C-alpha cells in the first residue's frame, strides 16, 4: 500500500505596497509635501508671469493673507477643540463677536494685552453658556449654536449703545456701533532679511522673486498675536495627540460611554473643551478688532463659519486646518488688495489646478470625476481668456466661493469624531 501525501502549497508572499502609499493613497511624507509645495510655487509663479498680476505673490499679498488667516484659523482651532470632545460648536461666530466687543471695550481704556485677556474671557464666557446648554441640559448642538450667535449679536449691540455712546468713550470717537480707537499688539520684523527679500522681489525673477515675496510677507510686521496663534496650533497638536489629557478628551468625542467606563469624567472634559473653544474664538475676535483699531458691529463677517469650514477641510486636524485657513485668508486678501485684476488671475490658477486634478483622477480611474474637473477647468480658462477683469460682486464673494469649492472637493475624505453632536448622559455605560 502506498501512502499519498498531500503537500500544502507555500503561503503567498504578502503584497508589498509601493513606497509612499498607504491604503491606496499617497502618504504625505516630508518629500511628498515638499514636492507638492514646489509644484504649487511653480504654478503660482507661472500664473503671475503670464497674467502680469504681480500682487499674486507679493509680500503685501502674503502678509494680508496671513492677517486674514489668523482669525479664521483661531475660529477653526476653537471648533476643533470642541468637536474633538463631541460638542458641535456652530456658535463660533457669536463667541468671536464677544471677543471683538470685550477686547475693544478693555483695549481703548487700557492696553493691547489687557484687551487680549478681556476678549479671551468674553469668548470663554460664550463657550461656558454653550456648554451649559448642550452638555448639562442636552439641547441640540446646532440649535444652541445658532441661538448663541443671535444672543451674542444682540447683547453686544445693546451694550455698545450703553458703553460706547456716552461719556469719555463718545468723546474719543465711540458711537452706538463702534468703539473708540484701541492700540494694536506689538509687531515684529526680522531685521536685514526683510529688506533683502524686498530687493529680490522687485526684480520679478521667475520663482526666485515669487519665493522672496512670499517669505518676505511672513517676516515683516508680524503681529504678536499671529505668533501666539502659531504657538497655539503647535500646542494643540501636542496636547490633544501626545498627552493623556488629550487622549481622554478625544475619547469623549469618539465613544463617551466607553470613556466613562474607564473612569473618565466625560462632563468635565467636555466642559473644558468647549470653554477653551470659546476662548480661542474670542482671541480671533480680538485680533480682528486690533487689526482695524476698533470694534465695529458686524465686524466678524461670517469668519466663525469659515473657520468651521476650515476645520472640516482639515479633517479635524491642526495641520489641515492651518492649510485651509491659509487658503481662505489668501482669497480674502486677494479680493481686498487689488480686486478684479488679481481675482481674474486667480481664475487661471484655479483652471490649472483643476486640470492637474483631472489628470490625477483619470490616472486613478475616476473617469467621471476627471471629466467634471476638466469641464470646470475649461470653463474657467474660457472665462479668463474672454474677459479682462471680474465684476465687483464676484470679487467680494471670492472667500465664500473658495469655501464652497474646497468643501465640495474635500468632502469625500472626511472623518469626523464618531460621537460628535450626539447626546450623552452620565451613567449610560451602566
Short overview:
68% of the residues lie in helices and 2% in strands. With 430 residues, it is mainly alpha-helical.
Could you list some keywords that capture this structure?
mainly alpha, 2% strand, 430 residues, disordered N terminus, two-stranded antiparallel sheet
The total of helices stands at 18
The count of strands amounts to 4
Strand content: under 5%
Give the overall shape, derived from the CA principal axes: globular
How do the helices and strands follow one another from N- to C-terminus? Answer: EEHHHHHHEHHEHHHHHHHHHH
Structural class: mainly alpha
Q: Largest sheet at a glance?
A: 2 strands, antiparallel
What's the Cα radius of gyration? Answer: 25 Å
Calculate the mean pLDDT score and round it: 86
Distance between the termini: 66 Å
Portion in helices: 55-70%
Instruction: Write out the strand line-up for the largest beta sheet, numbering strands in chain order.
Output: 1-2
Q: Low-confidence spans: pLDDT under 50, at least 5 residues?
A: 1-6, 16-20
What does it look like?
With 430 residues, the chain is mostly helical. It is built from 18 helices and four strands. The protein has helices at 30-51, 59-84, 92-107, 112-136, 141-163, 167-171, 193-201, 208-218, 224-242, 244-254, 256-261, 266-292, 303-313, 318-337, 340-363, 367-386, 392-396, 398-410; strands spanning 21-22, 25-26, 187-188, 222-223. A two-stranded antiparallel sheet has the order 1-2. It has a two-stranded antiparallel ribbon with strand order 3-4. α2 packs parallel to α9, α4 runs antiparallel to α12 and α13 runs parallel beside α18. The longest helix is centred in the middle third of the chain and has 27 residues, at 266-292. The relative contact order is 0.16.
